[in-house]
Amino acid sequence: MTHFNSTRETVLKASRAYYAHRACYEDLLVQRQRRFTEANKRELNFLERAFSANATCPIKKVLDIACGSGRHVFGLAKLGYECTGLDYTPERIQIAKERAKREGLSVKLLQGDATQLKHENEFDAVLALYVLFLLPNDDDVLKCLNLIHRALRPGGILVCNVGNPFYKGKRWFSLNAIYEGLRVVEDRAPGIRSTEVALLRDFDPMHGVAWWQETSTIEASDGAHVFRDKERLRLFTYWDILHYLQAAGFKEIKCYPDWEINPRKKPKAETLVFVSRKD
Ligand SMILES: C[S@@+](CC[C@H](N)C(=O)[O-])C[C@H]1O[C@@H](n2cnc3c(N)ncnc32)[C@H](O)[C@@H]1O
Q1: Taking CB atoms and a 6 Å cutoff, what residues make up the pocket around ligand 1?
Q2: Which single residue of 186, 226, 229, 254 has CA 20 to 30 Å from 61?
């Protein structure tokens, strides 16, 4: 089986099914499990510091182009930012809307494709977190970054991240996971247990594209569920993203490894977080 030439539609369909199936369960884990709540805190803290360190306009209006169930937009809304969250998977937007209602948070939530943004000179900051690797092909990545550049006001910033394929530890994006061909992750929180087994089905080393077959077994208060889905991941290096950002017109581009505003001399660089300004 080869997936090297998968169409845009195939990739989007697979990604939508994957994120739809897990939508409400991931939201529970994100809200209840320490690993996620700590990551959330760290990322929100980074965002606030990155806004003040890198933007040359005051940051008020924020757009998240793949908000999922809304963890970043809700965190920022609580801090007083005016947020809009967009996501391709309607089930994720639905979960986010329910949470907004429950918590009385005012966030504009829309279903949409990050490669079809229509905004112009509207936002002070745009977030593209944990999503670039999912876009169906490299033309989409460039198109998406171009549209984000257009959506920003001058002086505004884009914060985006990718997993670093050269990271040596045993994590999702590492070459290590690719060569082992298998990844198993178990997460538990009050009222939920999830085990995800991902098998590498196809890897194109020239283009850095991997197709995984993922089986999630979830036990939650509504019963036990097994979901089998495919997911396509594109591995990007620091240089790939730098070149794309430059091609999209961003000028002041900084990379912060592992959500550290003041990185250690030799960071682990599991995640590369780019902050880029529109001049
Ligand atoms: C790994 S999740 C990250 C969600 C969120 N940014 C977070 O950090 O929790 C990836 C999200 O990207 C969304 N997505 C995938 N392709 C997309 C596209 N073309 N446009 C907008 N959202 C997309 C998925 O529906 C999913 O919610």
Answers
A1: 15, 19, 65-68, 71, 87-89, 92, 113-115, 129-131, 134-135
A2: 254
